[in-house]
Amino acid sequence: MTLPTSPEQKLRSLPAPARAAYQRFKDNGDPAALDEVIMAILADFIPRAQAGLLATATGESRLIEDLGFDSLAITEVVFFTEDLFGISIGNQELVQIRTLDELRQFVRKKISERPAA
Fold this sequence. Notes:
This protein is mainly alpha-helical and 117 residues long. 60% of the residues lie in helices and 0% in strands.
C-alpha cells in the first residue's frame, strides 16, 4: 500500500463530502467547510476503538483525554494537515492545542497567515 504524499493525493484519500468541503473552503473561505475537512482528517486517524466518539464530540472535547488520540495519531493529523493546507505547525504550538475548537481555530489562524500565492 502506498501512502499519499502530495496534497492532491492526501485530498483524494478523504471521503467525497470532505473533498467537496475542501473545494468550498478553497473557493470561498467557508469556515464551516474547513471544519468539515478537519473532522474528516481526525476521523481518518482516530484510533479505531474510539471512532464512534467523533460523532458526539463537541468543540470542548479534548483530543487526548476525551477522544483517545495518542501522540502518533496526533502527529499523523499534523503532517496531513500541514501538507494539505500548506502550513507549518511547530511542536511548541502543538502542545497548546487540547480541544477540537482549539484545533479548528489554530488551523484557521495558520491558513490566514499564509503568504498569498
